[in-house]
Amino acid sequence: MENQFDFIAIEGVIGVGKTSLAKLLSERHNARLVLEQFKDNPFLPKFYEDRERYAFPTQMAFLASRFQQQQDMLSKDLFQQMIISDYIFEKDRIFARLNLGDDELALYDSIFDIMTGISAKPDLVIYLQSSVDRLMHNIRQRDRDYERHISRSYLEELSEAYNHFFYHYNKSPLMIINTTEVDFVNNKKHLDYIDEQIFNQPIRSNTHIHIIPD
User: Fold this and answer.
1) Fewer CB within 10 Å of terminal CB in the chain, N or C?
2) What residues are annotated to the active site?
3) Domains of the chain (ranges, CATH numbers)
């Protein structure tokens, strides 16, 4: 089947493997890789240490960075290759609703509403789900310094917020993959299966597709 996508975005909770899958698929399909620039956010380590104090500056720094990347994607030359990203712009508000107070959220929303209207729209969104146990395992395995402060309760809140968001998501075709028992990094059969479903099966608008490889 001829490739039907110019822009694929992969989403999911911290530790679910969205960046890994984006990298693997971009290598297979010679796609331009656009990754979230979380390392450039100077407030992120402080946020995980003191969530209430640093939520707003962390959120605004992410909003500015993500919007700049969206503008770069919109200006993509027509002859450049497909784009695969490890986030969608709208995900920013999931974190804002979870972490900001009412006054902060109102200010944030006034800016977000302007930006989201002129952000890049994916041709397909892939939402990776996982159990909190698996997320905790993955985070411990990669052992990033600033992620050592992430609590199980925060991941539970975040997972619930993500599930709620994507249950109502209808801006792009949506594919849902439960990765709790899936290892597309080390198991080529799992990666092949996912690749087949994305690129060799018809994707219908506003359709939720659950994929659990054998």
Assistant:
1) C
2) 86
3) 7-211 (3.40.50.300)
